[in-house]
Task: inverse folding
């Protein structure tokens, strides 16, 4: 079987829209609300989850025939926890500011339902390569929702993107303009509303849902 | 005459007419002007003599005194701050306020009705009339300096996300007008509260007076939240010559509206009574508690009633038949907790000088639960009665 057969491509792309972990399965909402006030942490968080899901899927898929059924959750947790610790250490070493912004939410990736869901539902029954593709797909499906929400929230909440000013200073009320930043965008409540709007948009585009 | 006009243009809007895309707009306009001539054709159904467009029109009429007074008060506050009260005529003050409020009403209706018409057209439904009232309520519960683009954004937010999403008029959980205000309040706090937003400072068509930017004016509740003694007299508070959101200041004007609503039985006296009782009890309890460094806790209950949006909320917001309790006993409980929470937020949370909006939105959420309890109780009672026999 070729590496990118039709079935494998389906495994990779279906979590992006048709079976999106956030928008369709409504998993991982907690972190989607917590880290999306700005774009940069949202991107980093999305990438971290993608890496962890992909490699946890591969490892569990390799072990799947040796894991006793009754303790499989514990084994999965150990694998995920080691990967999360690894990612957290790397972030602290190379991107300290972002890791401070993300604070506990990197550690809380362990409890992200998307991870356990993919491990249980996919990696326990499929080979390592398919599992890897599934992990990357699910992670990216999660990541793009985070990035989309983070984009809107930072743009309208702070007038910046990745810390760079997008809405010109001269438009603001303090400088004689008329524009005021939307304070509600920086609150988690607005993130929930935005996720809701995204789900709405996705469902409207894809009639079969 | 109007009827003839509608009959003449009707064919254009029917199935194959040239404007069939605008069918729902036509329908909406016709039923707004005339009593609809379609009656139910099967079964027995009892209709009230007035349909919901008529009810909505009565509410708008009841809102007019408060709105007109609000316009006058804008001019009055402007002249007062400029020190020109004696030199300004009543009409100059009123027209000045009118010119400032009119754009807000136009924007509110244009955005809200625009969205409702579009949605009705897309879903091929009749246009629903709910926005008639919401559209005039929203400009009345914002400060006079609220920019028009913010107002438009808030109206769009509330109509789409607080009403249409739940299925349109009659299906919404939260009061759409208050949702618009809550959106503004949390999104743009500097433009919605504080000392700088209640006073119009620029001339309009050479009416009114230009005031320096530094002139500020705090509402009585703003003063209380900042622990300053309240400067306005009780007389002014009742009559409404205090700074505040456009329609909420005058107790007298709101009372006229309340009488109209109660006489036509559109608003329930039970809800209104509940709000005032709840507010009075809570205010009295705080008076006894003697909290130190807390001016709001020493305000008597009539001062609480006369300031901020208490009366306005009790009469026009809490009585909304869609979002409030529907069982008769439930209305008391629902109203009581609105009054209680409003005073509680005013006194104990210095971050929110006014608690009426949050109290009503919060109780909107609980209204179905209250109803559920009373309905269940009635069911159980009847079951018990059946068993006895």
Result:
């Amino acid at each position: 079987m070729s590496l990118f057969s039709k079935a494998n491509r389906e495994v990779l792309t279906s979590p992006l829209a048709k079976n999106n972990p956030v928008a369709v399965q409504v998993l991982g909402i907690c972190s989607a609300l917590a880290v999306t006030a700005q774009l940069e942490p949202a991107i980093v968080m999305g990438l971290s989850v993608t890496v962890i899901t992909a490699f946890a899927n591969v490892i569990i898929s390799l072990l799947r025939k040796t894991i006793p059924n009754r303790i499989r959750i514990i084994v999965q947790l150990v694998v995920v926890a080691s990967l999360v610790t690894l990612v957290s250490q790397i972030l602290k070493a190379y991107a300290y500011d972002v890791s401070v912004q993300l604070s506990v939410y990197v550690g809380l990736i362990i409890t992200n339902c998307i991870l356990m869901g993919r491990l249980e539902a996919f990696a326990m029954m499929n080979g390592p390569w398919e599992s890897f593709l599934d992990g990357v797909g699910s992670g990216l499906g999660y990541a793009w929702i985070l990035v989309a929400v983070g984009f809107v929230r930072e743009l309208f909440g702070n007038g910046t993107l990745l810390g760079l000013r997008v809405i010109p200073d001269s438009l603001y009320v303090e400088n004689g303009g008329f524009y005021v930043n939307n304070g509600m965008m920086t609150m988690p409540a607005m993130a929930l509303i935005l996720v809701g709007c995204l789900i709405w948009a996705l469902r409207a585009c894809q009639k079969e849902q | 005459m109007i009827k003839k006009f509608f009959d003449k243009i009707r064919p254009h809007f029917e199935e194959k007419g040239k404007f069939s895309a605008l069918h729902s707009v036509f329908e909406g306009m016709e039923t707004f002007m005339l009593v609809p001539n379609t009656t139910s054709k099967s079964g027995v159904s009892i209709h009230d003599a007035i349909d919901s467009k008529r009810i909505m029109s009565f509410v708008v009429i009841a809102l007019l005194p408060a709105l007109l007074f609000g316009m006058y008060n804008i001019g009055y506050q402007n002249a007062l701050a400029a020190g020109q009260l004696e030199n300004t005529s009543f009409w100059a003050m009123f027209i000045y306020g009118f010119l400032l409020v009119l754009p807000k009403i136009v924007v509110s209706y244009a955005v809200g009705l625009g969205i409702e018409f579009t949605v009705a057209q897309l879903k091929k439904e009749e246009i629903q009339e709910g926005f008639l009232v919401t559209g005039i309520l929203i400009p009345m519960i914002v400060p006079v300096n609220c920019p028009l683009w913010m107002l438009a954004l808030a109206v769009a937010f509330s109509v789409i996300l607080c009403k249409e999403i739940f299925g349109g008029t009659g299906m919404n959980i939260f009061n759409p007008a208050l949702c618009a205000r809550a959106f503004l309040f949390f999104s743009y706090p500097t433009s919605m509260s504080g000392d700088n937003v209640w006073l119009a400072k620029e001339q309009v068509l050479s009416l009114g007076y230009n005031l320096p930017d530094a002139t500020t004016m705090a509402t009585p509740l703003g003063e209380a939240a900042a622990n300053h003694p309240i400067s306005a007299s009780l007389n002014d508070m009742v009559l409404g010559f205090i700074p505040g959101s456009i329609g909420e200041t005058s107790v007298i004007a709101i009372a006229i509206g309340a009488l109209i609503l109660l006489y036509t039985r559109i608003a329930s006296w039970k809800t209104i009574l509940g709000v005032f009782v709840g507010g009075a009890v809570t205010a009295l309890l705080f008076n006894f508690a003697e909290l130190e460094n807390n001016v709001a806790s020493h305000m008597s209950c009539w001062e609480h009633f006369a300031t901020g949006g208490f009366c306005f909320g009790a009469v026009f917001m809490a009585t909304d038949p869609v979002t409030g309790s529907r069982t008769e006993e439930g209305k008391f409980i629902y109203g009581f907790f609105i009054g209680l929470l409003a005073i509680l937020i005013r006194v104990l949370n210095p971050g929110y000088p006014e608690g009426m909006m949050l109290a009503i939105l919060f109780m909107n959420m609980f209204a179905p639960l209250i109803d559920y309890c009373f309905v269940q109780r009635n069911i159980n009672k009847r079951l018990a009665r059946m068993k006895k026999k």
Remarks:
- Chain B has two domains: 2-33, 52-207+216-377.
- Chain B has a mean pLDDT of 80.
